[in-house]
Amino acid sequence: MRSLFFVMLTGLFVSYIPATLSEDFKPNSIKTISEKPEESKSISQLLYDKMNLAQVLKFEAFDQALQGYNILHPRKTNILTVIDFTLPSTDKRMVVLDMEKEKVLFHTIVSHGKNSGEKYAKSFSNKHGSYQSSLGFYETQNTYQGGNGYSLVLNGLERGINDQAKARAVVIHGADYCSESVIKSTGRLGRSYGCPALPRALTKPIINAIKDGSLLYIYAENKEYMAATKVLTPVAKGGMLAQHDEVKTVDSDRLN
Q1: Cα–Cα distance measured from residue 213 to residue 232, given in angstroms and rounded to the nearest whole number
Q2: Strand order in the sheet with 103-108
Q3: Nearest Cα to 106, choosing from 153, 56, 48?
Q4: Do 219 and 63 meet the contact criterion of CB atoms below 8 Å apart?
Q5: Of 108, 109, 132, 220, whose CA is between 20 and 30 Å from 58?
């Protein structure tokens, strides 16, 4: 009798439970907080991080240099040199990279043209007699002994931007005015006639490392250059790189 009463009481209690549970209380409907996926990094950003370049080179300069490196196909593929003229001449503005071993070979001061600016290089030209630096991509060529000692010929690869470099005798060479002692005495480096001049002690090892067909990129966050260059292609809508049709007009055949 007592068992029957318990069964009846249990049935009465169950009859008051709603037929359907609220979505919030169903075991299988527990809401999970979706984690926002971490933003994926570009290939250049991954390589930049892997090479630990944050302390020696601005990412934008490296990214643009890498774009040119992948488009122009330099004969000497293991070396990429970047000069960042957004920095003052008192800073180490030249970085030589070993792309195969993924490491920094050299990080040094470098001079700009006397008419490009005082402590900062702000004006650039491709014209004869301008005594200004020229931006953009260059191919390194042969070495020679000249008035400034051991020197390296640079071949400007961008028409109208730096293609007069050889005719202007814009080369890499050593200079006494490119030294820490000059910085201490004057507050800036001495300046060239447009050449990226190096400290005497580093001239030979750097030239020997980058000569004979490697790529050099001189960067400056310059609107005029970005508007004129056909090597650096703007990003199109949708995040994809625009067609490289215009790149064909660059003298890339001189690098092949």
Answers
A1: 20
A2: 103-108, 94-98, 79-84, 215-219, 136-146, 149-156, 171-174, 197-198
A3: 56
A4: no
A5: 132
Residue 11 pLDDT class (50, 70, 90 cuts): low
3-state secondary structure string across 104-116:
EEEEECCCCECCC
Identify whether the C-beta of residue 65 lies closer than 8 Å to the C-beta of residue 136. Answer: no
Q: Tens of pLDDT along 84-104?
A: 999 999 999 999 999 999 999
Report residue 49 as tokens.
């991080």
What is the overall mean pLDDT for the chain? 85
Q: Is the pLDDT of residue 15 over 90?
A: no
Question: pTM of the entire structure?
Answer: 0.79
What are the tokens at 103?
Answer: 């490491």
Instruction: Write the DSSP symbol of residue 30.
Output: P
How far apart are the C-alpha atoms of 75 and 11, rounded to whole Å? Answer: 87
Q: What CA–CA distance (Å, rounded) separates 254 from 256?
A: 6
